[in-house]
């Protein structure tokens, strides 16, 4: 999560919302967010409904404004690569709106 926070302004400048999801409690999320100075939302998923639909572990989904998953990133994020792919997706969608 800290890696996403480091580049949060870059993600936001590309209209990209970062969300953290885990089974941890809201209290745990609050402490974690405060500890790392996170400015993006953390979602508590104690029943695993969200992770059952998508996946568990360190996974980032890039979902466009229409709700389509455009990219899935597994493992520790490489923000420069992710931001580059977001820019490519944005450029492609501008040229060929769906």
In short:
This protein is an alpha+beta fold and 98 residues long. It has five helices and four strands. Strand 3 and strand 4 form a beta hairpin.
Q: How would you sum up this structure, described in words?
A:
- The chain is an alpha+beta fold.
- It contains five helices and four strands; from the N terminus they run ααβαβαββα.
- The chain has helices at residues 2-6, 8-13, 26-36, 49-53, 79-95; strands spanning 20-22, 42-44, 59-63, 69-74.
- The longest helix is centred in the last third of the chain and has 17 residues, at 79-95.
- The model has no long low-confidence stretch (mean pLDDT 85).
Features:
alpha+beta; 4 strands; 17% strand; Glutaredoxin; two-stranded antiparallel sheet; 98 residues
Strand share of the residues? 15-25%
Number of domains: 1
The mean pLDDT is 85
Total beta strands: 4
What does the largest sheet look like? 2 strands, parallel
Write down the CATH class. Answer: Alpha Beta
- CATH architecture call: 3-Layer(aba) Sandwich
Low-confidence stretches: none
Which structural class should the secondary elements be placed in?
alpha+beta
Number of helices: 5
User: Superfamily at the CATH H level?
Assistant: Glutaredoxin
Helix content: 40-55%
Strand order of the largest sheet: 1-2
Q: What coarse outline follows from CA principal-axis ratios?
A: globular
